[in-house]
Amino acid sequence: MAIKRSISLYSYQQAYYLGQLDLRGCVAEAAKTGAEGIELIPEQMPVGSFPTNRQKDIDWWKDLMQEFNVTPTCMDTFIDFKMFRDRKRYLTLKEQVAFLERDLKLAHDLGFPVIRVLCKIHFDVIEAALPIAEYYGVKMGTEIHPPVMIDSPYIDGYVEMIERNNTQWAGLIPDFGIFAKHACDPAVEQQIRSGISPEAAWLIRDQVRDGRPVKETVAKLKAMGASEREIGLASSMGGLPTYNDPASLLPLMKYILHFHGKCHQLDEDCNETTIDYPNVIKTLSQADWDGYISTEFEGQRLYHDEGCDYVEDEIEQVRRHQVLLDRLIRQYAKN
User: Fold this and answer.
1) Three-state SS letters, 37-73
2) CA 305 → CA 191, 203, 228, 308, 310, distances in Å?
3) How confident is the model at residue 1 (pLDDT cuts 50, 70, 90)?
4) Are residues 172 and 200 in the same domain?
5) Is 8 exposed, middle or buried (0-12, 13-18, 19+ CB in 10 A)?
6) pTM over cut 0.85
7) How confident is the model at residue 300 (pLDDT cuts 50, 70, 90)?
8) Strand partners, 140
9) 262 - beta bridge partners?
10) Are residues 162 and 290 in the same domain?
11) Are residues 53 and 171 in the same domain?
12) Nearest-5° Cα angle at 94, 89 to 98
């Protein structure tokens, strides 16, 4: 039983978009870090043509995995249930299941044992697709992603569905964003570029970090003459719970298929500056959880706004995150 390291190629999206890396280049960079697994968003980085792959494309992908000695761990799937919004309707249950069937087949063809289903997809859709998942031998994991909390009616209902069906083909994929204690510095700096005063932006960050009540934050902002927009930002950030105690994972451990190792900023010592990685890895190790954590660097979006003259080095951030994972896994490994 062991925690293993994977990388979501989503982490290299900026380099891929700019043509600095192709799909093979992304896999090569991931392998350099020592990661054992590869997570893929095929809509973003298609293997051949999405969603239908020719056999030669499938063979190319499998050869690529073998060349770099990595294994497919998770394939991210999306169901665009709002695609007919202009027609005043969402996709029906049958239409959503059809999307899942398409992606389950693709995951099977490419060798992925698990697909990630967005947390916005209702578990009725996943329940209806259980026979299809079993047919293809691919498990479906719904994502626990902010603002969804581990201890919530949604997750309770999802677990009840799993138990009622006595199924191994549905589970959970927690995102480490639920263990973030406050906004990272680049996020605060982005707010400042958008027009929030530095004094207000850093005050809000510090108040959230320290767990202070929203009313207290608003009172401090008003005293310093903050704008309505700044007060609104404090209310939205302070009123939206994000931090989950890692111990809350323990009752759900048998349902967890995979983890998204969300990261926004890693310092030169390879520490994530806002997310409680040590306590999460310690909890997983003590519970003997066996599976993959995929690096999911999402810091790029913090530098895309007008007026920002800096872009973070994705490849270096992913490397640092893998160093962090390796260090913590070794630190908390049972002898």
Assistant:
1) EEEECCCCCCCCCCCCCCHHHHHHHHHHHHHCCCEEE
2) 10, 22, 22, 6, 10
3) low
4) no
5) buried
6) yes
7) confident
8) 115, 170
9) 296
10) yes
11) yes
12) 110
Note the pLDDT tens digit of each residue in 157-171.
999 999 999 999 999
In angstroms and rounded to an integer, the radius of gyration of the C-alpha atoms of the chain is 21
State the residue for tokens 């934050």: 217
285: containing domain: 3-180+242-332
Answer yes or no: are the C-beta atoms of 41 and 9 closer than 8 Å. yes
Cβ contact 123:142 at 8 Å: yes
Task: Please tell me the predicted confidence (pLDDT) of residue 9.
Answer: 98
Position 271: which residue type?
N
Average pLDDT over residues 202-221: 90
- The DSSP string of 18-44 is TTS--HHHHHHHHHHTT--EEEE-TTT
DSSP summary character for residue 227 = -
- When divided into structural domains, the chain yields a total of 2
Segment holding 317, helix H or strand E: helix 314-332
